[in-house]
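Most newcomers find our protein records easier to grasp once they have seen one. Read left to right, the backbone structure tokens trace the chain's path through space. Nothing more is needed to start thinking about how sequence determines fold. An example says more than a description, so a record of this kind follows:
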Amino acid sequence: MDVVSPLTLRSFFLVLLPPLLCYYITALLVLIPHTLVLRLLLLPLTLYLAFRGATQLDFSLGYDSTRLAYLNQGLAVRNPVKSLHRS
């Protein structure tokens, strides 16, 4: 797989789906008692796959990369806090 590849069905299954599955498995393990060690063992893999997915996909779809470059940072940088100011 290229260092940066456009989002296709193949790249979705190889780059984006694995961290989502790890996240889901971790969420299921939270519900099961006495799985802390297993979750801690899964954490480095989940973090690595999330970083790889956030840095290796090109969401601008090959268009003018200077104009749509912000689409590539959508997975890497997110602000979970909603704005305090309402318009």
Remarks:
- The radius of gyration is 16 Å.
- Residues 7 and 82 are 28 Å apart (CA to CA).
- The chain is about 50% helix and 5% strand.
